[in-house]
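Risk register update: the risk of archive-format incompatibility is retired. Evidence:
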Amino acid sequence: MAGSVNKVIIVGHLGRDPESRSFQNGGKVVGLRVATSEQWKDRSTGERRDRTEWHQVAIHNEGLATIAESYLRKGSKVYLEGQLRTRKWTDQQGVERYTTEIVLQGYQAQLVLLDGAQGDHRDDRGGDGGQQQKSRETDAFGGDLDDDVPF
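Archived output:
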């Protein structure tokens, strides 16, 4: 058994549309900004209080990146499971900076669309016009876990 665990699970809403970057070697990364919020009642004043935390997410898994690009939009509710990673980079002024982000990479990564695909509309023959609320869970390779297709 390993001596430590690096696992992050968040459920939140996207603050903006996913941003995709491609590399010269053919790889790509999709970046997300996800907000998580908590609310409570202040004991001394009785007022409702809330706090929002913003999380930077980098998706390096090709299948999950494709799903994020295709189905996620600003406001989408998602379940994400990945690892914390801190990286060092140099800004335009030459100053070294550090960024801690949630990274979805490898087979351990999970992305679940909690409010259905944006633009997921049925036809006019008895469909619900896109009003269906459906959870879509994918495996690390981007395949639907709900599909009954044998390997």
